[in-house]
Write a structure and sequence with these properties.
The chain is mainly alpha-helical and about 400 residues long. It is about 75% helix and about 0% strand. The radius of gyration is 20 Å and the shape is globular.
């Protein structure tokens, strides 16, 4: 008879609610400290006398550091355990955010932001691996969606608070407030997340690490899902990086508070990630992913309008599209990777954050040379390729291992 401690977590149980609440708080913290600077980029450009593309380094640099560190942190979690790595990550990133707000120089601030990205790397891939190991197959779509919903809520609250407080006090107080909230979220996570029940520690042999990563590139589906992460996140973050510059200028002349308020649309991402994850679990990821991406292409075309309500509506549609597609693709990783799931998750998220870093900054070149139409064209090109990949994945034969018949639909 199966021991209680070995059972998978099923939806609707008290331990399911406890686990998803803790991981929601963790996703909130990570995205708040990473993306709270996004509406402040015009302020950085003005106060530190840098270009829009240079101001985007406040986000691109920590995302790049996070992406690269993921490739080291996930193997460490196979040795040290999932929860200890995640707890250390959340506390360190919150504390570094608080230190960054007192550094006077631009380069010093960027250095602290880079360290924050390094610290934050302990959460994303490890959380995905934790869910893949601990959750019942029918609960993983919902639980992954709720984790991503926490990301969306953290991104929204971080951006909104930063924008409002910057208007009424200073960007340093705004970002410091986010650091305090992240510290409280870390405490909630530490006290609330159940220890791993199905994790088995491995003795790490570093010379074997390249092989554990390389095996995932031999799968016919996983490399395409990694590419989706790069393209989808790169296009999405470019929209949010530069829409503030557009709306601060005539004919809109919005305040920093109003720019921050636009990020309330992240609520749509919170709901769409959980809802899309549940829909994909019922009807299959192949049928949902390409539709979510197509929705994003429709949304970005709406932002070409000169009417502010249509611009905001387009951003809402883009947000729903992105979080829905990300929820589907990220849960698919855990279903196709039958071994070394933390490494598979870390590759996916490495590409995700590299997309945010590399493509998010590259979008600044399009904005500088062609204005908002350039950003729309850039986004359209990225999502067009992503749509083609999703259609290819829809025709991919599923894995049907005897031990997990519900995998990879």
């Amino acid at each position: 008879m199966e021991e209680e401690s070995d059972r998978l977590i099923t939806a609707g149980t008290p331990i399911f609610r406890r686990t998803t609440l803790a991981l929601f708080a963790a996703g909130f913290s990570t995205f708040a400290v990473l993306y709270g600077v996004q509406p402040l980029m015009p302020v950085f450009a003005d106060q530190f006398h840098v270009s829009p593309a240079e101001s985007s380094l406040s986000l691109s640099l920590p995302c790049a550091m996070l992406a690269l560190a993921l490739l080291v942190v996930s193997p460490l979690s196979e040795v040290w355990g999932r929860k200890p790595i995640m707890v250390a990550s959340l506390f360190a990133s919150a504390i570094l955010t608080l230190i960054a707000v007192i550094v006077p120089s631009w380069h010093g601030f960027l250095a602290l932001r880079a360290l924050t990205g390094l610290a934050a790397s302990g959460l994303p891939a490890v959380a995905m691996a934790y869910l893949s190991e601990e959750m019942d197959g029918r609960a993983i779509g919902l639980s992954m969606g709720l984790l991503i919903g926490g990301n969306a809520m953290g991104g929204m609250v971080g951006r909104l608070l930063a924008g409002i407080i910057t208007d009424h006090a200073s960007w340093r107080i705004g970002l410091g407030t986010i650091g305090v909230l992240a510290l409280f979220a870390a405490i909630l996570f530490w006290r609330g997340l159940p220890p791993s029940r199905r994790f088995l520690a491995n003795r790490m042999r570093w010379r074997q690490v390249p092989g554990t990563f390389g095996q995932h590139f031999r799968d016919p589906g996983l490399p395409w899902l990694f590419a989706e992460a790069f393209l989808l996140m790169g296009g999405f973050v470019s929209v949010y990086n530069y829409v503030g510059f557009r709306l601060l200028d005539p004919p809109y002349n919005l305040s920093q508070t109003a720019i921050g308020a636009i990020f309330v649309v992240y609520l749509a991402g919170t709901f769409s990630s959980a809802a899309t994850g549940e829909i994909a679990s019922r009807f299959g990821r192949r049928k949902v992913l390409w539709l979510a991406i197509l929705l994003g292409l429709a949304g970005i075309l709406m932002t070409l309008s000169e009417r502010l309500p249509l611009i905001i509506a387009g951003i809402v549609v883009v947000t729903v599209s992105f979080f829905g597609a990300h929820s589907v693709a990220s849960s698919w990783i855990g279903r196709r990777a039958l071994r070394d799931r933390a490494q598979a998750s870390s590759i996916y998220l490495c590409m995700y954050y590299l997309g945010s870093s590399v493509l998010g900054t590259a979008g600044g070149w399009f904005f500088a040379h062609s204005g908002w139409a350039g950003v729309v064209a850039f986004f359209g090109g990225l999502y067009g390729v992503a749509l083609g990949i999703a259609l290819h994945l829809s025709r991919l034969p599923p894995l049907v291992p005897a031990t997990s018949p519900d995998l990879d639909r």
